[in-house]
Amino acid sequence: AGSPVAAGDSTPVTGSGWVPESEVALQLTDADGNPVGDPVTVTADAEGNIPEGTELLVPEGTEPGEYTVVGTDENGAEATAPVTVTEAGVPALEAGSPVAAGDSTPVTGSGWVPESEVTLQLTNADGNPVGDPVTVTTDAEGNIPEGTELLVPEGTEPGEYTVVGTDENGA
Q1: Which residue, 22, 90, 92, 116, is the most exposed by fewest CB within 10 angstroms?
Q2: How far apart are CA 167 and CA 160, in angstroms?
């Protein structure tokens, strides 16, 4: 299963080794094994693969965290895949401004994959990096840790700059 996936979006599901032409039920479950949302039933192809393009919806309002996609065929065979669910929407960042060269700006943010690394980089108007990046690990809710700061290097010319955050999944 594709991971991470935001609540309200679908995760692509692939798989192989099923009985050819058999029905396979796919169900998202929480950490306790309880079903989340509706199952999707697909028919494995002649080679026993989950059909290309199969997707499983993560319902809107699903709490961010670790989940499992469980596939079960008509004979009771089962396979699982982990999925990290994030908040709906895109990650967000906010930085304090104005900041003098040589000082640090506080950086806050939300909507990132929980407990993932996010690299923060100050960039100039042309998108070029200014100074050294800072890498932080988000908390269990996908927030940038409290107290995160990004240094504006000494000698940085006055002007408009942007703090860009990038996680390991390219968000």
Answers
A1: 90
A2: 23
